[in-house]
Amino acid sequence: MADVRSIVILTGAGISAESGIDTFRDAGGLWERHRVEDVATPEGFARDPDLVLGFYDMRREALHSREPNAAHRALARLDAEWGGDLLIVTQNVDDLHERGGARRVLHMHGELKSALCTSCEMRSPWDAPMSNRPPCPVCQAPTLRPDVVWFGEMPYQMDRIYRALRGADLFVSIGTSGAVYPAAGFVRDARELGARTLELNLERSEGSHWFHESRQGKAGELVPAWVE
Ligand code: BJW
Q1: 114-126 mean pLDDT
Q2: pLDDT at 151 over 80
Q3: Which keywords does this chain's UniProt record carry (predicted)?
Q4: Are residues 205 and 159 in the same domain?
């Protein structure tokens, strides 16, 4: 990495799989057991808020017993020890990057441990159930929802992400199927802007052909090997 000054790392559900967190589209993944239209769209939430709040309560609760794995810790080491520009853009709503020690993390699809109030639009740290309709800590209205980005909604901090992609010499994608936009388009954007591109994933993703290099295997093995 001698000639690299700026790295953007995109992570997806696969980086947390070895911590026991379900992915979405793998066999046995979340979308096999839950209809995406019901639990991950604003329309689904309007139709049946109890179902959606219960789905996210279950995942938030499960997060308490999950720990960062070797891949999260390796990225945290890179973050701490590498002096150049670095941004870890995660699609994950878990907090395993932070608990693994990483600091330069951006959650483009929101966070399980955050609540969004649909009345005052404030985001608040949150680590309790929501299906009992607690009041918003800011405006007291009983209108909290999970602070996650559903289909049809705009992911967070897109300006900051594209700014980082424009400056990146290296783009690394870890544990994502490349099925969901705009994240799935970052490799193409980064490559067209001149970055070298590397994929680390269990299998070739939908966008594998866009990468200069694609390595297959578990994130818990591939990521430490790449960082060292
Ligand atoms: C391992 C491993 C191990 C396993 N080691 N690897 C047509 C074209 C373009 C776009 C669209 C389109 N039609 C509709 C759209 C828009 C839509 C979209 O992309 N739809 C697709 C289905 C086509 N996108 C949106 O609506 C987004 N918003 C938007 O586009 O706004 C407009 C806009 C315009 C212009 C600029 C910017 C914005 C919003 C998308 C929101 C996604 N939300 C979810 C739920 C979040 C909350 C929650 O967690 O519940 O985000 S859906 C779900 O998918 C979640 C994930 O972050 C996301 C990506 O999944 P991920 O992480 O890739 O997981 P998997 O399961 O798919 O893959 C895991 C991978 O890991 C696999 O490859 C495994 O092999 C691998 N793996 N174990 C390494 N141990």
Answers
A1: 98
A2: yes
A3: Acyltransferase, Cytoplasm, Metal-binding, NAD, Transferase, Zinc
A4: yes
216 shares a domain with 131: no
| pLDDT for the residue numbered 1 | 76
Residues 76 and 186 in one domain: yes
Domain that holds residue 158: 1-21+68-109+154-228
CA of 14 to the centre of ligand 1 (A): 12
CA of 16 to the centre of ligand 1 (A): 15
Pairwise CA distance, residues 126 & 137, whole Å: 10
Are 16 and 116 in a shared domain?
no
For residue 66, count other CB atoms closer than 10 A to its CB.
15
> Cβ(207) to ligand 1 under 6 A?
no
Here the ipTM equals 0.95
What is the share, in percent, of the chain residues with pLDDT greater than 90? 98
Query: How much is the pTM?
Result: 0.97
Q: How many structural domains are present in the chain?
A: 2
